[in-house]
């Protein structure tokens, strides 16, 4: 069964996946400010135009390095500067809402989502196994924790086709 992603888990994954490999080259969807703001609008809605792009990019880089085991969580400190939880009293009780400086709302939300995953689903956030061609990440919510590809339709099929080809090639060599 696939659990519905919380909005910020989706944001985290989308942020991690802003450096896809296209035609053999690693690209960066946040490199060009115009494209970056289009990405922000698409994934977080309007109203985030004050987001500090440089901080968002460096937070993304740190999160990617963390997933690869190549960074320490202390490197996330800039994204959490001035971030706190605020009690908001509603009709049914108290809600705790993340309060962030306007300049790094998205960076902070992604970091908080990453931290939550560390506790609720350790090891479930990882990179696509098609490392030769793909720089995307996945969050595995399957019961068996056996997802290996960013998408079955993309890398899953490509890897299956390649294994099939290699098996045939090996079978022919053996003849
Ligand atoms: Zn992939």
UniProtKB/TrEMBL annotation:
Gene3D superfamilies: Jann2411-like domain. It comes from the Bacteria. Residues 124-168 form the Zinc finger CGNR domain. SUPFAM superfamilies: Jann2411-like. InterPro entries: ABATE, ABATE_dom_sf, Znf_CGNR. Pfam families: ABATE (PF07336), zf-CGNR (PF11706). This is Zinc finger CGNR domain-containing protein.
